[in-house]
Amino acid sequence: MLRFYFEVARTAYRRQLIYRWANLAGLLTNIFFGAIFSYVIIALYHARPVVTGYNVQDALRYTWLVQAMIMVVLPFSWFDLMLTIRSGEVVTDLSKPCDFYWYWFSREVGRNVYYVFFRFLPTYLAGALLFSFGLPGDWHSWLAYGLAFPLGAMTGITYRFLYNVIAFWIVEARAMVTLASVVALFFTGSYVPLPFFPAWLRAIADWLPFNGLMNIPVEIVLGKLNGNMLWLAYSRQIFWLIVLTLIVRGMTLLASRRVVVQGG
Amino acid sequence: MTLMIEAEDLCKKFRVTRRRSGLLGGLRSVVNPEVRIVPAVNDLALKVERGEIIGLIGPNGAGKSTTIKMMTGILTPTSGRVYVAGLVPMRQRRELASRIGVVFGQRTQLWWDLPLLDSLHLLRHLYRVPEERYNANLKRLRLMLDLDEFIHTPVRQLSLGQRMRGDLAAALLHDPELLYLDEPTIGLDVVAKARIREFLLSLNAEHETTILLTTHDMDDVEMLCPRMIIIDHGRKLYDGSVAEIRARFGGERMLIAVLDAAEVAALPRGDDGQPRLPSLPPGVRQVQADGPRLWLSFGSAGSSTMPAHELVAWLGTRYRLHDVTCQEPEIEDIIRRIYEEGLLLKNL
Amino acid sequence: MQIISWRAVLHDMLLYRRLIALQIRAQLQYKINVLIDIGTYLAVTVLEFGALLLFFGPFPSLLGWKIGEVALLAAIMSISFGFAEMAGAGIDNFSDTIRRGEFDRVLLRPVGAFTQVIGSDFRLRRLGRITQGTIAFVIALRLLPNLHWTAAKLLILPISIISGAVIFISILLLGATLCFWTVETTELTNMLTYGGREMLSYPITIYSQTLQRFFLFVVPIAFGSYVPTCYILERPLPFGIPSSVAFAAPLVALVFALVAGIVWSFGVNRYQSTGS
Which chain A positions have a beta carbon within 8 Å of C58's beta carbon? Predict the structure, then answer.
């Protein structure tokens, strides 16, 4: 069975390879917005050299890491599952002899791998070249990132699945999808780096599931989380990954029962 | 001025750049494009009088839509001249647009989510039809096209036949002098087709509306068009009546007779074990048999073999006929024959 | 090229009004959906604005600009862009129109092609961004207690908001014209519109001189946001440009719109000669 999921992931990866031009256009957009934020951050730092332990280099790296990771962790308006629900395709998917959730999960992992190579790496490289802030952290933090990034990406898959599965119950859910994406992006540092948040908002954000999506991995690779803080961060990520997965699996179970009873 | 459409030496050549594949190929295409000249329409000449109904026939890709696009101002000719209602389509696009109507068989010009009536109201303003004339036209069209049963239904819920009637009404609200119809009966059932044809005939009779219709349906042409134009590879192959083309190039026709089963069983068998009709008249031969159904091919309308009704009579005196159908050759076959016999007729 | 008569222009404008009224009526049929859409868009844009304000938590100023000043800039930009998004929706959809082969029908009507395109859609849900802009404006005012308003400053607001909207719509039109050549360029247009909006929500002095010149003299969206804001805040403009140039915004918009219009006509002509 594992072999099947691996093939699903591989197929998804291969499929993405076809959309070269779309990816290039998206990459340019990522770089463009990264550049805008960079200008803003550089201008802001004229007034104060360090904020919560972040100097301008850290802040720039943070911005570009998040920008680079977005397509992997939280692609904006991901509707794929919702579309199959709308079209009824999901009924055939649910009756396949594999686990519905792991099937989608593997697909997304395949896509994620593509985006790691063709968006994450080029975006960060472009930023580093344009604004000369070099690579973050050291091999310790990279190692730690090697765990945190996948954790964040997997939680991202679960989250996307969650706000899509709601389409089983709500018909016109597009607006909600947009809102779900935006809120998640906001609370993971895509609009404003979490280290810049005022204390009260930071406290809230720390406990939300979105923190672990991108903010925690980025903070880790920048070397800002060490020792106990690092383990706390991991545990937060893992906690939410498990919780969200359980919720999603529960909802899928409910949904598939409903489909069986009502016949799609 | 009675000449509705006048075209001379009309040519359209398309420049087609071949897109090369691959990343590098895409870049190469920009810098050094491989350009091919595709002639879509070649030296077309055409004269259409006001009040004529003309059928435009040709295989797909023959240049029919390109010609019509040039006549409506959508496309610029590469060379040559065309005048429609005395106007130059490209230069006087808007003025021409208010005097012609166009119906596409496969695409509607109505607003998808709106009830038909709302679309018509909107088109009234689009075409600046004065209120009185609009009301009169609407009333007339509602009657002639039987629109009342669905005039308040959103267009996306209409059947194909209803939508086609809606599109016709939409195209005629502003009393166009010239009506282009692109495959108007495609996909419609027999009854719907008949209705549309009846409507077009009365439109032409009452209002002298010139009608140019593109179609693959030979019945459309035979029932509506006194004059038929065949276009292939961008050239006009034929310009004349339908009967004449059958007479000259029609080739053989097929009579399908359904005889009584018992009588067929009593017929002598041929080499293939199938029942054969003995002693058929000259020029008539049996091509196929399938139970009580027999296919008989006989000469074209102008040839010396007996005409269809005589053959039917001949069969009827000897056998009990349950059903008889006469099959005409396909227009594609006729065109192929025209090519094979190397014949190109110029306009008279 | 067609020689357009004044009667034709008037007819087109009346028709535009009618087409828009139709769009609005059609959308209002689903009142709840419209409200949800507006609400969502409002929430999204409010979050964006909130993010802007959050930057001023740890940082006292943005290259000398205080929080209230940046908020005012963002507010004016939002309102202007919101109007452009709302009215220019038809132009935004143009790539779909071309892809579906519906432009032929546009040419078959006795109406200008541009009127039909811009009249084909009117996105009510963009009222969400306009509402956010208004809220942001109110917040900006509260953050700028010492701002002294004159009649001229009040006048510059509608002038520049409308001019800015016209410029954005012209950019959309330029992007739509590209669709006559290839339908793959929607990302590029998006970058110029949404990217431009994002960039000019911050004072252009944070960008390089080249970029500043670009947004002032080439694609002059600064005239819909930065220039009037500087006028209101009595801040100097870059390159020694006098503040009163803010009142030239309508002229700038007109020139840019004319350029876009000419390029569009050229595109339509090309469509008519190649038919693709």
Answer: 48, 51-52, 196
Name which of A46, A41, A89, A38 is nearest A64 in CA terms: A38
Are the beta carbons of C191 and A32 separated by less than 8 Å?
Answer: yes
Contacts A–C by Cβ distance under 8 A: 83
Residues of C in contact with A183 (CB under 8 A): 47
- Residue position matching structure tokens 């222009």: C9
Q: Which helix (H) or strand (E) holds B345?
A: none
The predicted model scores a pTM of 0.82
The verdict on a CB contact (< 8 Å) between A48 and C59 is yes
Q: Cβ contact (<8 Å) for C55 and A40? A: yes
Picking from A27, A31, A32 by the largest number of C CB atoms within 10 A of its own CB, the best residue to mutate is A32
Closest-CA distance, C202 to chain A, in angstroms, reads: 8
A36 and C199: CB-CB below 8 Å?
A: yes
For residue C102, the chain B residues in CB contact (below 8 A) are 107
Q: What tokens appear for B57 in the block?
A: 């026939």
> Which value does ipTM take for this structure?
0.87
Q: Which residues 120-139 in chain C show a CB within 8 A of chain B?
A: none
| CB-nearest partner of A48 from C40, C44, C60 | C60
- Cα distance from C4 to chain A (closest Cα, Å)? 38
C228 half-sphere exposure, CB direction, 13 A CA radius: 31
State the smallest CA–CA distance between residue C119 and chain B in angstroms: 12
- Do A45 and C58 make contact, defined as CB atoms within 8 angstroms? no
Tokens of B213: 């219709």
Could you report the per-residue pLDDT of B284-341, keeping only the tens digit for each?
888 888 888 888 887 655 556 677 778 888 888 888 888 888 876 666 677 666 656 6
Answer whether C7 touches B (CB < 8 Å). no
pLDDT in 10s for each residue of chain C, 276 residues? 455 678 888 888 889 998 898 888 888 888 888 888 898 899 999 999 999 999 998 999 999 999 999 999 999 999 999 999 999 999 988 988 888 888 999 999 998 899 999 998 888 888 999 999 999 999 999 999 888 899 999 999 999 999 999 999 999 999 999 888 877 777 788 888 899 999 999 999 999 999 999 999 999 999 999 999 999 999 999 998 998 899 999 999 999 999 999 999 999 998 888 876
* Inter-residue long-range contacts of C180-188, CB under 8 Å, 24+ positions, other chains counted: C180/C98, C180/C267, C180/C268, C180/C270, C180/C271, C181/C267, C181/C270, C183/C95, C183/C98, C183/C99, C184/A21, C184/A25, C186/C95, C187/A25, C187/A26, C187/A28, C187/A29, C188/A25
How close C50 comes to chain A (CA, Å)? 9
The residue written with tokens 């308006």 in the block is A77
